[in-house]
Structure formats: C-alpha cells, structure tokens
C-alpha cells in the first residue's frame, strides 16, 4: 500500500525524484523508514515532485532511481539483504550511474567488503572501501560528531545501536569525527564517497539532521538552490540531545 505517501506519478512521468526504500521487510528495524518520509516531504516543500517506491526483498530493485535508502537490521535479515542485493546487482548499476545512497547501520555495514552477522563473516556489496567486524561491546546510545568539513554540514546528532565496528580503507572518507559515542571505531563515524553515504545514526537520522537530508537532495537533483525550510522542531530536538550528551 502507499498509505501516507505521496500519490505515485502518472505513468510515463520521468521528471519525478524517485526515492527507493530498499527491503522494508528486512532493513527497517529502527524506524529508519522515517528518512524516506523526510526526504519526500523536504523535496515536495521545494516544489520537487516525488515518487516513493518500496521494494521488498523478493522484488527486483529499479536501477534508474535517484535516491536509495537502506535501514538498520538484525544480523539474520542483514545477511539475507546483502545476499539478495548482490544477486540483484541493480544497486551497483544505480551507483555507477550516479545515484545517491543513504545507508544506516546494518545497511551501511553491508555496503562494505564484508561484515559479521551471527558470528559468520558475510560478503558485502563492495560499494564502499570498508569492512566491519565485531567490537568488544555493543555500542548503544547517543552518537555525535563533527562532519567532514568538505560536506559543509553542522555536527551530526544521532543514536546508535550496533555490535559491529567498521574499518575504513583509503578509498573512502569518514563522515564525521566522533565527539560522543562510538560510531565506526570510537574515533570516526560513518563514511562517504561520491554520492554514497553511510552512518551508524539511527531512525531519526534525517529528522535530527535536516541539513544532511538537504545534502542528499542537492546531490540527487544537482541543484544547490534548495529554498530554506522552517526547521524549528529539528533544531529544538538537536539542541536538547546535544545538551544531554554534554551532561
Ligand atoms: N547487525 C548489525 C550490528 O549489530 C547492525 C545492527 C543495526 O542495524 N542496528 O552491528
């Protein structure tokens, strides 16, 4: 169903921004799907027509969409999602054509070369030069960091919950330097290369970080002229969480 979503565009319309929610049946554990709603809403409020497409893991991914979103997941669904994305192949095709990918936690880990799930090493998609192993503790709690200055964003504010640790290779840049929490390895958090960006920041990632949502929209639309929006509520949430982590 499409309940709560913008109406799909008429057949043949190709001027829509196409947002793909990848595998809601496997990668939707922490309400990360809210990121889809936020991107759709922020685009529509700028007058950009949007099509949201939810693709279950038994369906083929479209190769020609603009933004692909991958959420968090428990180990079993995460391993299955990686296998199906590898055999599908269209996420690779989309990235090669310049599509934007925003991936959270399990979705982020599976973009690398390998990750651990249920004690077993699993092949990832090799879309980012990184791999994940298991850490000594589970990382649960507030996550904050100073974002790579080249991205021109205010500090990242988020919440993390993962057992994995992620190690970056030379072909990828850290999204942020950790100021609170663990992120990849207690020093860096997330990764990006080109238009592919991953983070350990969960469910409310884009509601807490509207500037990050707008970065993804700028990448996808190729325009730097997005009208400012009223982000009072996001700003309040950010201020509240940032104050909480300083205590
Ligand atoms: N299963 C992965 C881990 O624990 C990812 C968890 C998640 O998406 N929150 O590291």
UniProtKB/TrEMBL annotation:
Key words, A-Z: Cell shape, Cell wall biogenesis/degradation, Glutamine amidotransferase, Hydrolase, Ligase, Peptidoglycan synthesis
Classification via SUPFAM superfamilies: Class I glutamine amidotransferase-like (SSF52317)
Pfam family, one: GATase_3
PANTHER family found in the cross-reference section: DETHIOBIOTIN SYNTHETASE (PTHR21343), LIPID II ISOGLUTAMINYL SYNTHASE (GLUTAMINE-HYDROLYZING) SUBUNIT GATD (PTHR21343:SF9)
Documented EC number(s): 6.3.5.13, 3.5.1.2
Summary of subunit composition and partner proteins: Forms a heterodimer with MurT.
Cell cycle in keyword set: no
Binding site for substrate: 138
GO molecular function: carbon-nitrogen ligase activity on lipid II; glutaminase activity
Active site, UniProt feature: 105 (nucleophile), 202
Keyword rRNA-binding carried by entry: no
CDD domains: GATase1_CobQ
PROSITE patterns found in the cross-reference section: GATASE_COBBQ (PS51274)
Chain ranges of the CobB/CobQ-like glutamine amidotransferase domain: 19-209
GO BP field: cell wall organization; cobalamin biosynthetic process; peptidoglycan biosynthetic process; regulation of cell shape
Protein family per UniProt: Belongs to the CobB/CobQ family. GatD subfamily.
Reaction equation(s) it catalyzes: beta-D-GlcNAc-(1->4)-Mur2Ac(oyl-L-Ala-gamma-D-Glu-L-Lys-D-Ala-D-Ala)-di-trans,octa-cis-undecaprenyl diphosphate + L-glutamine + ATP + H2O = beta-D-GlcNAc-(1->4)-Mur2Ac(oyl-L-Ala-D-isoglutaminyl-L-Lys-D-Ala-D-Ala)-di-trans,octa-cis-undecaprenyl diphosphate + L-glutamate + ADP + phosphate + H(+); L-glutamine + H2O = L-glutamate + NH4(+)
Record Gene3D superfamilies: 3.40.50.880
Protein name, UniProt field: Lipid II isoglutaminyl synthase (glutamine-hydrolyzing) subunit GatD
